[in-house]
Design brief:
heterodimer, A: Lipocalin, 0% helix, globular, B: mainly beta, Lipocalin, eight-stranded antiparallel β-barrel
């Protein structure tokens, strides 16, 4: 069977395993991370905890914040593996869009912690600068 | 040549700025309590107890062991601030002396995470390489 030529922009994009072992279109497995993750910094002014759940197709995150609206509702999660030969998630991205504000999350796993980088963009005319912060979450038993 | 000065600044960060002075007392409160490894399957340190005795820190480390927790014992630790005139504790270090090895435990606190580097130095058993273990802890 002729496989289509796989395009790559860097060496990491190329698969090292033989094509017959690689499963085309196989999803990245986020299941070890499903559950509730709690911010290590109790006085946070941002996300206090989040819940990762399996959805009918893929995964969702529901984030809870320290003030204001509380739960942000579910958002789609895109899981990422550490390399193109793996199907085991090592991180994920997600995005909340509230119209006036957009918050992108980029997260990775390290020794029991999920490190979440938050990129907040203001789309209103408030003059607030877009900002970045990073916080640490541990899994609740 | 040995320099003997009353005040030596190894770098700019070690210099006390004019008008500033050392804090009367370091606030240790943010570190006090039990810290649990974020990685339950760790083979390093499972948990650590941080206590304040008078104005100093006392640390009790529990290693992860196949038979359960291994108590390393209670030891005094040296506390450190974030800066030379700082009032808030940033971390601590202490060392354990065992029959076969020395373990230097160095910890720094960042937004609710205690990051601990443990430097294991073996006493000439010819089998093991000295190694560093980096782990994360939460309260």
């Amino acid at each position: 069977m002729n496989r289509p030529k796989i395009q790559a922009i860097k060496r990491d994009d190329q698969q090292d395993r033989p094509p017959e072992i690689a499963h085309e279109n196989a999803a990245v497995d986020l299941s070890p991370f499903l559950g509730t993750w709690v911010n290590t910094f109790r006085a946070t002014r941002s996300i206090t905890r989040f819940v990762l759940t399996q959805a009918s197709a893929g995964y969702t995150i529901t984030a809870y914040v320290s003030d204001g609206v509380g739960g942000l509702g579910p958002a789609e999660v895109v899981p990422f593996a550490p390399n193109v030969d793996s199907r085991k998630a090592d991180g994920f991205t997600a995005r909340y869009d509230f119209g006036f504000l957009e918050m992108s999350l980029a997260a990775y796993y390290a020794k029991g912690l999920i490190v979440v980088s938050q990129y907040t963009r203001f789309k209103d005319q408030s003059g607030r600068p877009d900002y970045f912060n990073r916080e640490f979450f541990f899994k609740m038993d | 040549m040995t320099h003997t000065q009353s005040t030596v600044s190894l770098n700019e960060n070690s210099r006390v700025k004019p008008g500033h002075r050392r804090a009367a007392q370091l606030d240790l409160s943010s570190l006090i309590g039990k810290w649990t490894n974020t990685y339950p399957a760790t083979g390093g340190i499972a948990e650590i107890d941080v206590n304040q005795v008078n104005d100093a820190l006392e640390i009790q480390v529990f290693g992860a062991h196949s038979s359960g927790l291994f108590d390393w014992g209670v030891r005094p630790a040296t506390a450190y601030a974030y800066e030379v005139t700082g009032e808030i504790v940033a971390g601590f270090e202490l060392s354990y002396e065992f029959e076969d090895q020395q373990a230097l435990v160095a910890a720094i606190h960042n937004r609710g995470v205690l990051v601990i580097h443990t430097y294991h130095k073996f006493k000439d058993d010819g089998l093991r390489t000295n190694y560093i273990c980096k782990e994360f802890f939460h309260q």
